[in-house]
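Ticket 4471: requesting a sanity check on a complex prediction with zinc ion. Repro inputs:
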Amino acid sequence: MAMQTPQELPSQTGECTSYNSIRVDGPYIAMTFDDGPSAVLTPRLLDILKQRHIHATFFVLGQLVQEHPEIMARAIAEGHEVANHSWDHKALNKLGEGGLQHELADTSATITKTTGKPVTLMRPPYGATNPRLNKAIEKEYGMKVILWAVDPFDWKRPGPQVITQRILAGTQPGSIILAHDIHPGTIEAMPATFDALLAKGFKFVTISELLALESKNPAPAPSASPAPPAQKSSKSKKKTA
Ligand SMILES: [Zn+2]
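Returned structure tokens:
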């Protein structure tokens, strides 16, 4: 179930096919939890989120949604977003069309049956994807591919304090933060993590809300100085990943 760093970062030049973070004009961030729902830990996390009025996004496995539909119903009722993380955590880039259909379509159908909501977002297990697969997931299965910008490697169980420190060190406006609600240490880390991020002024939103907040303003110019004949900037115009 371990997640790894995305193997392929999204293209910075072509069409936007996946997202690591979103360029926003305010202190908005999105907390995401993968690999659940867990019978014990996800309800505990929902309690922690509720106490702080924080909405998160859950990238869930279809087979676990089938086992714990009541947890997903609760997550939706409390304002969270539920999204697709495959049926049983297979690396999608190694599957044929039939395998993809099961991992993607069956999972979305099971989520929708449980929550009554369409599924518009997908996170490939292990971040194992490529531009072609991203395009197929969007065009054929109707989901945007969401990766992440902040990875505390909580699945390696470094201890709650380290998880908190890593998230605090990496989070900026627009960050998509990765964690897993199947590890006790991750859940243990969340109260301090959330409280510290709130104290810094960050505002938690779901991934769909973060996408909707994408800045319409042009990216800031590379140099702030008004006139002098600029040395040619090598900075290409980056598209939001
Ligand atoms: Zn995963």
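Notes from triage: The first strand starts at residue 18 and ends at 19. Leaving this open until the requester confirms.
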